[in-house]
Design goal:
The chain is of the alpha/beta class. It has 9 helices and 9 strands. It has helices spanning 20-28, 71-85, 104-111, 130-143, 160-170, 188-203, 237-244, 249-266, 286-291, and strands at 6-14, 46-51, 55-61, 89-95, 117-122, 148-151, 213-221, 225-234, 269-278. The protein has a 6-stranded mixed beta sheet, with helices on both faces. Strands 7-8-9 form a 3-stranded mixed beta sheet. Helix 3 (104-111) links the parallel strand 4 and strand 5 (117-122). It is globular and about 55 Å long.
Amino acid sequence: MAQEHKAGFVNIVGNPNVGKSTLMNDLVGERVSIITAKAQTTRHRIMGIVNTPDYQIVFSDTPGVLSPKYKLQESMLNFSEGALTDADILLYVTDVVEDPTKNADFLAKVAKEKNPVLLVVNKIDLVKSQDELNALIDRWKAILPNAEVFPTSALEHFNVTNLMARIVELLPPSPPYFGKDALTDKPARFFVTEIIREKILLNYDKEVPYSTEVIVEKFEEQETSIHIMATIFVERDSQKGIIIGKAGSKLKKVGTDARKDIEKFFDKRVYLELFVKVEPNWRNRENKLKSFGYIE
């Protein structure tokens, strides 16, 4: 008898900077989530889909849990809390340097979770000894007694295969939720904006990257090429000057770096035009957050 098809939603939650996006990309096998060293890089829930003839796993990477300081962060926290309610399997990601008592309220919700919880202790390549690791795992078991613990290093692909095998075992029987050729639920434009945003995070310091939003105004795809026009929104005139740089040099670098990655992503030649506009205080304006897709 043919094996029954399995499918399920696997939601990845945890604090900022513990390696959620790196882990998701390792599990999905494609660079679906932005990875940079700056905290709070993921602002939306991003789904990455793994298909085989026997199963479909819908991974969802969520923004790091944080106490919201402005409306944008409130909507980010809603994405993370929503991930608790609709998961078939929950991956709670922490690492070896994080204090296990951080964000106790959110952990208390995870501890009440009825569905399977897999606790991923990431970055174990940084641990000095096995005893130190064992002590840390014991602390986590006291906080999340129902969770299965997986010490991993997403960066070095250590123990990720075992984690994946366990996820497949735990999947409920179900027909696929998405087409079998789907890699993500996000449209092509979304990845263009994420790639440009990543380059902004890498090329500028301090607050500037967090005050920016990128919108693709035009995405014209031909057989061998794509023509893209995108606008970078900032909150103040001074930020606009910083983004553009002397004689346009900084903006040109962002454009060149982004274009190379977009070409790799779509495997086509890309013509990319970037513009910068000021949109005062957009992170606190509900109508702007709606139009940028943060609020339903």
